[in-house]
Amino acid sequence: DAPPNGPLQPGRPSLGSGGDFYDVAFKVMLVGDSGVGKTCLLVRFKDGAFLAGTFISTVGIDFRNKVLDVDGVKVKLQMWDTAGQERFRSVTHAYYRDAHALLLLYDVTNKASFDNIQAWLAEIHEYAQHDVALMLLGNKVDSAHERVVKREDGEKLAKEYGLPFMETSAKTGLNVDLAFTAIAKELKQRSMKTPSEPRFRLHDYVKREGQGASCCRP
Ligand SMILES: Nc1nc2c(ncn2[C@@H]2O[C@H](COP(=O)(O)OP(=O)(O)OP(=O)(O)O)[C@@H](O)[C@H]2O)c(=O)[nH]1
Ligand SMILES: [Mg+2]
Fold first, then answer.
1. Which reaction does it catalyse (predicted)?
2. Each residue of 89-110: pLDDT tens digit?
3. CA 119, CA 156: separation in Å to the nearest integer?
4. Does residue 181 have its Cβ closer than 6 Å to ligand 1?
């Protein structure tokens, strides 16, 4: 139900089919290995809750909407929660093309999910728009004892590919709102033709606002 993302018309919000008013809408897709916490991250952001207990793997693709107020502009994020399982890959490939932003997740307690990031990036390169807004997230940082991927490893990989990076926890909520807000700010800025406004810098914003281990480094 998202309208085409034409120029903003403040004061003339669109009415979504769910009865939600918004000025501009974007599609954000979550990708990464099965079990890294994509669905939990989305549920945490949307409902402020954590899905503990039995892991229910996503089948195909799922949708959730949320309207955010970004500096006085109502930004609707239509969020696509993809299945990480290999057997659904052909289903999710079809959605990449329409995504304005991608959140690429790995699980800091699962080395394989981190090692697979490069394969995910290759897939993104193949199927997504070349200018898609992309952010790397290392999830489950609440599980300190099970951690096998160091924060520095995530930072290094992100730097190598020029990606903004944060560690998150769907369980505690750490940096979850921030990740989606940062993406919304970036997309809003890109869609607005106001050269007078200082350019929003996703990298700097995430670095400045992100919480976590950065507090403890020298
Ligand atoms: N400790 C901890 N557990 C988490 C976190 N996020 C998710 N989990 C757990 O990890 C498991 C997988 O989470 P999901 O969100 O369903 O994973 P997914 O990436 O959507 O997996 P697929 O749908 O198969 O692609 C569940 O048992 C969650 O409870 C987190 O931040 N911390
Ligand atoms: Mg899922």
1. GTP + H2O = GDP + phosphate + H(+)
2. 998 999 999 999 999 999 999 9
3. 17
4. no
pLDDT in tens, 143-167: 999 999 999 999 999 999 999 999 9
Q: Is residue 10 part of a domain?
A: no
For residue 76, the 8-state DSSP code is E
Residue 46 and residue 32: Cα distance in Å, rounded? 19
On whether residue 2 sits in a domain, the answer given is no
**Residue 1 domain-assigned (yes or no):** no
160: containing domain: 15-211
Evaluate: CB of 169 within 6 angstroms of ligand 1. Answer: yes
Tokens (6 digits) for 38:
């994509």
The token duo for 192 is 């607005």
Instruction: Answer whether residue 8 is part of any domain.
Output: no
How many domains does the chain fold into?
1
Query: Does the Cβ of 27 fall within 6 Å of ligand 1?
Result: no
Residue 210: HSE in the Cβ half-sphere, 13 Å Cα cutoff: 25
The 10 Å CB-count burial string (b at 16+, else e) for 15-35 is: ebeeebebbbbbbbbbbbbbb
The tens digit of pLDDT for each residue in 50-103 reads 988 889 999 999 999 999 999 999 999 999 999 999 999 998 999 999 999 999
